[in-house]
Amino acid sequence: METSEIKFRLATQADNDGILRLMHSIVMPGDIELIYMKSPDFFKAVTTQGKTQQVLVACREDGEIVATGVRALRRATVNGEAQTIGYLGELRIAPEARHLRVLFNGYKAMKALMTDGQSLLHITTIVEGNRNAKVALTWKNKYSTIPNYVDLGLLKTYFIFPFLWKRRCKYDIEHGSLANLDAIVDFIAAKAKERQFYPVYTREEFLALPDFHIADFHVVREGGSIVGVGALWNQTGFKQMLVNKYNGTMKLLKMLFSRFLPDEGEVIANACLSFVAIQDDRAEVLEALLAHIYNDLRKTKVHYFMVCLHERDPLNAAVRHFPKLTYRSRLYAADYADEKAIRSRIDNRVPYVEVATL
C-alpha cells in the first residue's frame, strides 16, 4: 500500500462502524490472545478516557479506516494538585498499513493536537509483550514527530477469578448510596493527592459516568469511619474483551479450569475495581474489600474482576492470596520535551492508572 493513499483526519460519529471494523479485526498477542471491542458505540466507550476526546483516523482513498489513535483530556492529580493531562490510547493499525511512514504521518497529525497547550503532559501505556510498539515508540533514533516516551514503571493488572469462597473480614462494608456519596467523594479526593494521575471527579461527574451506578461503590468502615473505597464498574455494555485463542500455559489452565475460564470466541464477563482509595495504604483493608467482592461475584456469571496497581504501590500485597493472572504493561509519560524536562514535571509519588479508563 502506498502511504500517499492514506489520509489522516479527526473522526466523527459517522466513522463509528469503520472504527469498530478495524478494532475487531486486530488480535492482541499473548498467552491469551484478546480482541478489544467497543460495541456498539466507540465514541461512548472513549468518554471514560477523559472529558474531551480527539479521535484521529487514517483512511484509504476508498474511505476504509486503517489506523486509529485517541487523545483524551482528563483531570487528574499531579504532585498533589488537580491538573489537566492528556491520555493517548486506542493505537490500532491494520496489518497492511503497518510501516513506519504511517506511524510517522500519524504522529505528525497527533503532534498538532498534543502541542495545543491544554495539557501539562500526556500518559500512555504499552503492553509489556508488545515488542513492536516498544521499539517503534521508544527507540532513541525514531522520527522527530513521535514524542519522547519516558518510562514511569510497570503496571500490574490483576485478573482475579472468584473460584472458592474467601473468609469474610472484620470490617463493615456497605454499598454506595446518595446518602453517603458526598463522604465517598471527599474520601477519594483526599487520597487522590497521594498518587500521581489519580482521576479527579466531582459528585456530578460520578453520577454521569456511563453504565456506572452509585451502588457500585463499596465502602469499608472501621469504627464507623471510612477506611477504604472501591467501585465495581461493569463496562461490558460498551467495552468488551473477546478471547481469540489460548496459548502456552494458558492452554493447559483452560483445560484444567474450563468451568471458570471463557471459551475461545467468547466475550469475557468482567468488571473493573475502580477508584481504589485506601487509608494509609493498608493492604489488609484492600484485601478485605477484594474478598467481599470476590464472594459476591461467585454467585454471578462474571469470569473475573480487574484491579490495576503500579509496581511500587504497597497495595500490591493485598492480592497475594487470590487466584489471579497478572497482565503487565508499562506506563509512559509521552511528550515533545526532553526526558529531563518531562521528569521534572512530576515528583516521586506512586502512579495510579484507572483500569476502567484505559
Question: Describe it for me?
Answer:
This protein has 358 residues and is α+β, with helices and mostly antiparallel strands. It has two domains: 3-154, Gcn5-related N-acetyltransferase (GNAT) (Aminopeptidase); 159-330 and 346-357, Aminopeptidase (3-Layer(aba) Sandwich), CATH 3.40.630. Helices cover 24% and strands 33% of the residues. The chain is built from nine helices and 14 strands. It has helices at residues 16-25, 42-45, 100-114, 131-138, 181-192, 203-208, 248-256, 283-297, 339-344, and strands at residues 7-10, 32-37, 52-59, 65-78, 81-93, 122-127, 148-160, 172-175, 217-222, 225-233, 240-246, 270-278, 304-310, 324-335. It is globular and about 65 Å long. The model has no long low-confidence stretch (mean pLDDT 91).
Which helices and strands, and how do they pair?
Layout: E1 7-10, H1 16-25, E2 32-37, H2 42-45, E3 52-59, E4 65-78, E5 81-93, H3 100-114, E6 122-127, H4 131-138, E7 148-160, E8 172-175, H5 181-192, H6 203-208, E9 217-222, E10 225-233, E11 240-246, H7 248-256, E12 270-278, H8 283-297, E13 304-310, E14 324-335, H9 339-344
Parallel strand pairs: 5-6, 12-13
Antiparallel strand pairs: 1-3, 2-11, 3-4, 4-5, 6-14, 7-13, 7-14, 8-9, 9-10, 10-12
